[in-house]
Amino acid sequence: MHDVNLKGEDFSTIHNALCDLRRLTDQVAQSALMDATPLAMIVRKFEEGLQDAWRQDHEKMDGAMDYWRGVADQNGFSAIWSMYEIGSCNQKHGFTNDCLYYKLHWGEEDVIVPVQGDTYLDLYRAADEAIKLSGDQHHVFIEDVFVNDDGELELSTGS
After folding, report:
1. Which of 93, 144, 147, 151 is the most exposed place for a label (fewest CB within 10 A)?
2. DSSP type of residue 143
């Protein structure tokens, strides 16, 4: 047998299919119309086969979280970077907008902060500042930055 590497989206598809199979197994077991044992055995085989992939996924996520936590600590940021698909704070972000709009979850009015530079560190700095200026200490997770329908660079946060 050869080692095979799964792409992230393939792993997600298999993981989600396993979740669907678990739900089906539970429904069959509750209905008592048929024996759910064969389905449960299939679920166990999937789980056994995915153990290493799950371990690798957790290690990668832990590494990304540690990396961005270190970036926050080094720069005195209190916001928490949650866009873990970005591998380096020195990577260029590619946005041409020079202001970041933060439309508040809670608070009086939206916040606009200049983005001074073209790296994700510069974007992180602006997002952290926008969250601090907003006064919202609950939604501190930086989940997305995107160009909205009005052409503005917008920050999306969560809790």
Report:
1. 151
2. E
